[in-house]
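Notes, p. 3: input format for complexes.
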Amino acid sequence: MTAKPIIITLDGWSSCGKSTLAKALAKELGYVFVDSGAMYRAVTLYLLRNDIDIANEQQVQQALTKIELGFVFNPARGASDILLNGENVESLIREMKVAEQVSKVATLSAVRKFAVQQQQRLGAAKGIVMDGRDIGTVVFPQAELKIFMTADRETRVRRRYLELAATDPGISEEAVRENLARRDYMDANREESPLRQAPDAKVLDNTNLSPEEQFKIALLWAREAIG
Ligand code: DC
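Output follows (227 residues plus 2'-deoxycytidine-5'-monophosphate):
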């Protein structure tokens, strides 16, 4: 008998390796991996490109009707790249320009509604690993396995800095530190769907874990949940 597919959610602070773990789990289990942060980032990119005033709810609503998000599998990354109205914007959405605005955009309730609807559609058939901030609390409160990831801030700053410096040699560690502190604050303190640990989530603090060690732990949890 083949095991029934489940939903695995991975929420947690910025830059604690959620996507890396989610991707590895999905690959091992033959599940779909969805990086929900990429959806907020792609919306942000659209709003920036079109000079939309994010304080103007009507303008934002109007803009959302013109946005179509999609995913295309990128074999080189072993994960899906995000498409914004058909354009592959996977690398553009990782730039500082977007990182600086995305937390603010993610506070807008129209944007959250837009993203959550699409996320729920993507998970309708289960067999999915989705990472984000509110996936276990709001998007899939019924998920069979919820993981809450954390790591201390300096560890996360270092990891994000190294990641960004690989493509942007001009980046300073201090700028990354400030951006992360601001994002942590906004993620945890926004009114709508703030970052919270679901009461039934399993906590994974990876400050002192290698990617392999954390993968082993999460895979064990996943196998237990799948049954
Ligand atoms: O995971 P990330 O850094 O790519 O996420 C980008 C931003 O989007 C981050 O500031 C928080 C927000 N986000 C969110 O509010 N809800 C999600 N489910 C995923 C991301």
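The radius of gyration is 17 Å.
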